[in-house]
Amino acid sequence: MQTTFAAFGKRSLRAVTKQKAVIAILAMLILMLFFKTNFYTSYNLLNVLKDAAVNEIIAFGVTLTVIAAGCDLSVGGVMCLSGIVSIKLINGGMDIWLAVIIAVLCGALVGFINGFLVVQQKTEAFIITLGIGMLIKGVNQQLTDAHPVSCTNMEYMKIANGKIGGVVPNLALYMIVIGLLVYALLRFTSYGRNLYALGGDYDVAKYSGINVVATKWTAFVLSGTMAAVAGVLLSSKLNTGSSIYGDDTALMVNCGVVVGGTSFAGGVGGILQSFIGLMVLQLLGNCMNMLGIAPYIQQVCQGVVIVAIIWLDCYGRKRKREDV
Amino acid sequence: MEKKDSGIILSIKDVSKSFPGVKALDNVSVDIARGIVHGIVGENGAGKSTLMKILSGVYTKDTGTVVFDGETIEHTTPIESLNRGLSIIYQEFNLVNTMSVGENIFLGRFAEMHGMRGTHAEARKLLDSIGCTIDTRTMVGDLSAAEKQMVEITKALSFQSKLIIMDEPSSSLTSDELKQLFLIIHDLKARGVSIIYISHKLDEIFELCDIVTVMRDGHVIDTKPVGELTRADMITKMVGRSIEHEYPERPRCAGETLMEVRSINTHKLHDISFELKKGEILGLVGLVGAGRTEIVRAICGADKVHGHQVLINGKPVKIKKPADAKKLGIGLLPEDRKLQGLVLRFSVQSNIVMASLDNMTKFGFVDSSKEKGIAERQINNLCIKTPSAQTQVLSLSGGNQQKCVVGRWLEINPQILIMDEPTRGIDVGAKYEIYVLMKQVVENGGSIIMISSELPEVLNMSNRVLTICEGRITGEFNPETVSAQTIMDSAIG
Amino acid sequence: MTKRFSLKNFLLNYLVLVAIVLLVIITIMVEPKFLSGENLTNIMRQFGPLSFVSLGMTFVIIGGFIDLSVAGIISLVAVVTVSLIDPLGQVQALIIGVALGAFLGFLNSMVLISAGALTQAEALFITFGMSAVYSAIALIYTDGATQHMSWLTGNQSIFDAIGSGTVGILSVSFLIFLVSLGALWIFHNKTYNGRAISYTGGNKVAAELSGIPIKRSVVLIYTICGLMAAIGAVVLFSRITTAAPIIGKGYETNAILSVVVGGTTLKGGKGSVLRTVLGVLLITLMSNCMNLLGVSPYMQIVLKGSILVVAIWLDNRKEQ
Question: What CATH number is given to the structural domain containing A134?
Fold first, then answer.
């Protein structure tokens, strides 16, 4: 028992140090020690978690598709869609929970279509989901006439706003619960292990009797579902549904997932990695806010960080290829 | 259990299979007995792998019957075969590189094994039972070829396999690893498991097998106990003709030094230095992974290697990328035709003119009329069987595809043509044509470096042989005077 | 050249042509105004910025990569050029603007080459990051304010001509488009570097081992893409006479859309700028028709998205 525990510790340490994302986070945390800001307050740190929650939840879903050697760039559109749908339904007099469920089902439906196109029809995931994302953006604009809609039922806001015990934001809690669920799904169920197997080698998984089509398809459905859940939370947090949110969300989240070390080649990565990868981008924003950096400069920095980290990722692979 | 058990585990009767234009299997019949090692030998294209794929369920047979363990099998899938107790270990392993050993053994059976802990515990037990000490939590991608083979065997055992088919299992093993494999096979045999051992290395067949079946051109030529066959018999049956006609007459070597390579050092290669003479065919012999390909890639600038020297006609040259090599008249016929050699979706013409395109360029513009001429010339010259120069190269047979790559390099009149496994995966007739082309190249004043895993072809075609073992040159031989055994010993180290 | 004519193959290869013809017929039946001279001029005008950007994007996709940074490039080039017209003069501003676009494209290629990025997905994310940087620089440069071409000071006859001038019945921008199209078509089909780009997209490893300069191809495709995006930016702001720092948003997906709809495969290696013209034509005609028919602009996005999805799906079928 002792030895397996030690081995587990060693393995997780190695997994963590292999990640550039962790180093980036540590660098930011250390850097912030040298400035007198409100960064190191429990209020701010909890806020970081709260702000990250929506994107993190999307990232958990996207991680599933990336592990299966795909990716999902339609999540931005889905996020907006579900927010708009739930608010419109509630404004139309529907019960809040029923509306939320329908909104989430919309996301699942989009995921189902993605899965059909990518898995069943064997199209290239990143480009087809980009197209689906664009399509949904049109739907969102049509639904809202390109104006933001706010919810008339104030109860709706309570879903995402509020704190458990007055300390931990609701959103952070949702994120942690969903994260743990997906973590367990990937780690402890045969569904999760099959997903890793088919991501690592599709044919071998197929020949081993894994129902590869259904498994990968489900990953896309789950990704759509989780993006929809995140969309409901976002619209509840802001009490607004709008088609303009989420233009960059899809690419940002997919970047974050890759930054964390879940590779597009498939078969590797996990929830923890994606969480950390997205945290890099989130913390970066928070740090820059704390340091009072102008928003446009922040955007430059964010772009540079994305390029730098993906550059490092590619470069590492290049070194490995050329390692003769 | 008490079926009409005649001691036969697998009975194949009159099985045929056709692909467009080829009859891959023609009324093949073989019986495999329980608890023996049954060898199947035959050249590339003899139909061995088609037969295996029909047994595993990757292909469906056209006619005939297959009876496995008393049960007639009409249509099957790979997983059904496994569950019946028939496992196949392919040359390219059926393992997921990004997963652990334990999970690979029980791939798709995570729930049956009661999760991660059960998986690893069971895997440990099975690995121990064949005396294998690999940690079940190691990533398969980090294993050596031999270790991967152990994992495959363990996986087969986990399905309670009654018959394990091994397709060219020794192609990437060192001699020690091969011995261990033989021990395991003997152990399996003692447990009553039948083994079909597919190989074209006759030594292994004689050492290991009880019964051997010889296949050629989709037919079973003969099935006999190993003791009743001599080596020469077997070869005659395999090739179906006397061996002298398999190769053209060995070209004469001129003698002057053309290229000199001095001290290539990487962490895989150690102090590689050698010379290539004008008009010479130099054979590089070694196991897969010994560093043969790395040497030629380093010479061509395909891999980034520093600190070595290449002299052509006594003058040092700088080759940083394949384009530099091309300017010096060095062409590389890569190992993997489909991934590294051809643009599969492009036409025959586009593939042929690929290397010589810059020669027909004036002020940056390509002369398209010349382009067509070149393609036609090479198609005629090499007898490439294609409907037209505009046909997609994808639709040609392996031999014709390879000829396109050869034609590409002939068009630049190469001083040095480097051929990495030039005859892999092409049929016997096309092989002969490739050999004749090689002869043409040296007769026109070029030199060839040839890498091959098929010892006979190196022995018959080259003027000089270098053996490579674990990244070092371990010997230099004259294939006309030295026996194959000596060369192989030197290559194995 | 002795290929037998097959209707099925023809339809599959030139589906976009069939779609265009059908679209025109249907629209004429429903709305005869379509054929009015006014509307045809309108179509020619709409055949604007997007077509330039798509031409450049065609090369990137043939080369086996993708470029999301055109959005950023268009924004940055537009604001920089407009802001320089007054201080430097229109010719200088134009030259600097176009050169800036080409340089930004070149910069993309340098980042990709140094990273050793080989796949479309890697290129997608790197150029997305670059786009964020370029857009942000555009915002910083203008402090978020829209740049106006001031009519009172300075001479801007060139931009006037590009924006609204005509030669005979053809608009100036359409002429520029035809010239670029011709030049790029010759470049792709007749020059060594153009052919090298196809080989690079077809199989990078094989191309490199055969001595094809694949790094040069990558530099060329991104530089051309940047250059064409810059020309597109000039046409765009000349027409509307202002340049907002987010002016380029959405052009990246629309350009990919036109290229793929035209029938250039995303798998790389095969395709043509002429096909892209058909793609652009279809998209342009479609929005024109839908405008005539009074379809809401949002529904148009939905339809465009559906067409993109269907086009990718068909492309995939064809390749199988």
Answer: 1.10.3470
Strands (E), B368-443: 416-420
Residue A322 lies in a domain: no
Q: Which residue range(s) make up the domain with B187?
A: 8-244
Does residue B129 lie in a domain region?
yes
In a domain, C193, yes or no: yes
The ipTM (two decimal places) reads: 0.83
Tally of structural domains, chain B: 2
Nearest Cα of chain C lies from the Cα of A298 at a distance, in angstroms, of 8
Q: Nearest 5°: CA angle at B485, between B483 and B490? A: 105
Given an 8 Å threshold on Cβ–Cβ distance, is C209 in contact with B340? Answer: yes
Half-sphere exposure of B129 toward its Cβ, with a 13 Å CA cutoff?
Answer: 16
**Per-residue buried b or exposed e for C213-234, using 16+ beta carbons within 10 Å of the residue's own CB:** bbebbbbbbbbbbbbbbbbbbb
| Cα separation, C149 vs C255, whole angstroms | 26
Q: How many domains does chain A have?
A: 1
The verdict on residue C303 lying in a domain is: no
* Domain count of the fold of chain C: 1
Task: Tell me if B3 is assigned to some domain.
Answer: no
- Domain-ending residue, one of B196, B219, B244: B244
Q: How many other β-carbons are positioned within 10 Å of the β-carbon of residue B307?
A: 9
Is residue B165 helix, strand or coil? strand
Query: What is the longest distance spanned by two Cα atoms in chain A?
Result: 67
Q: Give the number of beta-carbon pairs within 8 Å between B and C.
A: 78
Q: How confident is the model at residue C1 (pLDDT cuts 50, 70, 90)?
A: very low
Q: Which two tokens stand for residue B267?
A: 């962490």
Q: Is residue A317 part of a domain?
A: no
From residue A12, how far is each of A8, A16, A64, B104, B162 by CA, in Å?
6, 6, 20, 21, 40
Whole domain around residue C94: which residue ranges? Answer: 49-248
pLDDT digits (tens, 9 = 90+) for B437-450: 888 888 888 899 99
- Structure token pair of residue B374: 């070149």
Of all residues in chain A, the one with the smallest CA distance to B105 is A208
Region of poorest pLDDT, from C23-27, C34-38, C63-67, C294-298? C34-38
Count of alpha carbons within 13 angstroms of residue C285, beta-carbon side: 20
pLDDT in tens, A284-315: 888 888 888 888 898 898 889 888 878 887 88
**Are B342 and B365 in the same domain?**
yes
Strands (E), chain A: 149-150, 163-164, 168-169, 240-241
- Quick check: A135 and C305 CB within 8 A? yes
Alpha-carbon C58 to chain mean position: 7
Q: Across the 493 residues of chain B, what is the mean pLDDT of every consecutive 10-residue run?
A: 62 83 80 89 76 84 86 82 86 84 87 82 87 86 84 86 85 76 88 86 83 86 85 74 66 81 88 90 84 90 87 90 91 89 90 88 84 89 85 83 90 90 76 86 89 83 89 88 80 71
* Digit-coded pLDDT (tens) for B334-344: 988 888 999 98
What is the reported pTM? 0.84
Measured between CB atoms, does B325 come within 8 Å of chain C? yes
> How many other β-carbons are positioned within 10 Å of the β-carbon of residue B257?
14
CB < 8 Å from A in window 66-105 of C: 66, 68
Domain housing A124? 19-312
Q: Is residue C264 part of a domain?
A: no
- Residues of B with Cβ-Cβ distance to A204 under 8 angstroms: 94-96, 107
Which secondary structure element, helix H or strand E, spans residue B19, and what is its range?
strand B8-19
**How many Cβ pairs within 8 Å bridge chains A and B?**
79
CA B391 from chain centre, in angstroms, equals: 27
Structure letter (DSSP) for residue B252: P
Q: Rg of the Cα trace of chain B?
A: 24
All residues at 6 or more sequence positions from C216 whose CB lies less than 8 Å from its CB, including other chains: C193, C196
Task: Give the whole-angstrom CA distance, residue C253 versus residue C308.
Answer: 10
